Amino acid sequence: MRHIIRNIAIFDGTGSGLVAGAVVVENDRIAAVLHDAAAIAAIEADNVIDGQGGTLMPGMVDSHTHLTWGSSVEKIYHQFILPPEELKVAAWRNARVLLDHGFTSLYSAGALGDQIEPELARAIEAGETPGPRLVPSTLERSPEGEEGVETGDVFNGRGPDAMRAFVAYCAAEGVKSLKLVISGEDALKPGSSGDILYTDEEMLAAGEAAKEAGLWIATHAYSPRAIELALEAGARILYHCSFADDAAIDAMAAKKHEIFYAPGPGVSVAALEASPPPHINMTSMKASAAERLELEKALVPKLKARGVRILPGGDYGFPFNPHGRNARDLEHFVTYYGFTPAEALSAATMLGGQLMGQQVGRVKPGYLADLLLVDGDPTQDVRILQDANNIKMIMLGGRMHKSPAAQPVTA
Ligand SMILES: [Zn+2]
Q1: Distance between Cα 396 and ligand 1 center (Å)
Q2: Single pTM value for the model
């Protein structure tokens, strides 16, 4: 099957400006990117798509996804922990909702059930259910007896052997990235973000075992010490890092070719905007969000200047921050962190693709054809990506998830 998408302006993922041209897709990959009118006219294809002057760009990547956090723009749950059957339904729905909103890749930051994501990732890959590419995870791990994020997991004992057992369990489950909660969480327990939940020995054991098993590590880390532990363990991605000091910034910059960083502004902004019903107390969550946002406004530009790869996405799925609004993170990168729209788009596409470890996130021959056709120019205003109606086509691996509207019939 060969498609040609023409009459488009191409955003290739790198951050450079739009270039007029056409893109040829063969089977699951991008076969050619053409700019010459005669070359474009000479292409024969099974399916010719007139982009009507819209922007063709790579699908977006969410770097910190919790599909089992139930709420989406289609269905809000007013309880956080769902019964097992509903949990699975919600996760499968949320995968499709994210794809409907232009996200073609997700990197999981942990699940509330242990087999849901590996099963879902397999079903998506087999074409049994619509959804983005998924790096699946399982229960978030915090140690036994520690405050912070409650996992309820039986593998939360102490010591290096318990860490190795958790990694072995994740590998057996078919997980690709495991999640370690190194810091406490102020939003859940005020004052706990400075707490350190693991020892060096535990983190090193987890890091070694994960490397041997071919698994990646994602980390919930706030303080300089938590960041140090994450880096020691060889974490692939660090979340939040709000309290990083100059030494932590240096340490992250020294590993800029190995790590990714996702601050996750969306949940903070949404928490500040939320007006919960009287029986829900969001006081500590709002205070934590305001503090973090303020710290990250200073921190993120410093890390960006040092060349650390900074990615949008994170912690959608609360009733006040439902899945499907994830593209708001790109606007937050512009508003709070001083990114240009093109830099925010590049972070959501090219850099996200590097996190996925697959040939995604670029409009480039040989890359997987995960493509969006957007009505308008997101390099001028990233907010247009927040309305799924502006995304006229969603292609995942050369297969059409959303076809462009039929051409208008002229009399
Ligand atoms: Zn998270």
Answers
A1: 25
A2: 0.95
